[in-house]
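Fold description:
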Amino acid sequence: MIAVLESTGKIVAWNHAAEAITGYTAAEVVGNPAVWKNLYPDPGYRRDATKKFVDILAKKKYFENLETTIRTRSGGSRIILWNTKEVTLGGSTRIISVGVDITGQRQLDAFRESIIDNAYILLAVLGPGGTVLVWNKAAESITGYLRNEVVGKRDVWKKIYPDAGYRKTITRRIVDIISRQSYFENLETTIRTKSGEERIISWNTRRIGSYEEAHEIAIGRDITEQRKAEEALLAYISEMAMRLRQPIEIVSESLYEIAGLVREGKLSRDEIVTALEGQARNAGQIASNVSEFQKAIAEKNREIPEAYRKFLEG
């Protein structure tokens, strides 16, 4: 939208885009300074915006990329990015104001920021030399380091990898992977949080932008609880194997003994049936114990991967 104003603020020109964006026609606006009250109906906001205009124009007679929110004739709100230039025409001073409707862009920016902040994955955007440009809420929550402690700096990596030897090893692995494929996937490292706790992070990266202005997006998923659950699962399986070994061996030995007695003709038909039924009950008890054991593992460790869970609960 383009508006041409006298130094008093009186509008002398109002183009079609200005009509479309604001809803006010040129016939209603030209020569009528009251339009500013319509565009900025809230007295407090209008006063603040006017003061901002006056302060800027007093210093340099124009302003650049100044954002304000206007109220359209239909009652909607639009965010306008203003730029002005002072010109002299026929001995009279005029101010040309160019307003770009950036409402959609700001809404998209807000949407992106919302996604970045509300996703529970550590998300960092890195500039040259590993300088942190974006550090989302999940990154704050997982590491304990706040955005204002991290953005614009690159020392956070020394903080979350305080051991120089481990940090050197990780750096070497990252450099080696990136030199071959420009990114890495599911790279697990152990970080130290601000509180001193250790967390296991699975990292994925991607490069965005041109070579001159390339940025790295680092996405870290906290898999600490999953790894603990997997370790617990292995411990449970080992314990279960140890506990089941003896009763299974007893059943096996008993069946071999029954088979030998049958072969020698020392057992009657009823004795054979009774002996086999006894071992069948023992085997059924073992199967029942295994089932209960599986259920206990699945219920206690909610972080067990889905494939393992289905096996345990099946």
